[in-house]
Amino acid sequence: MNRTWKELEAYQPRVLKLLENSIRKKRLAHAYLFEGKKGTGKKETAFLLAKSFFCTDRETAEPCGDCSSCRRIESGNHPDLHVIEPEGLSIKKHQIQSLQEEFSKKGLESSKKFYMISHADKMTANAANSLLKFLEEPGADTIAVLTTSQVHSILNTIQSRCQVLPFSPLPSYIIRQELEKEGVIGYMAAAAAQMTNNLGDASELSRNDWFAEARALVIKLYEALTVRKEQAIVFIHTQWMPFFSDKDLQAQGLDLLLFLYKDLLSIQVGMEDAIIYIDMKESLKQEALQTGQQRITEKVLSILETKRRLHSNANPQLLMEQLVLALQEG
Question: What is the pTM of this model?
Answer without folding.
Answer: 0.74
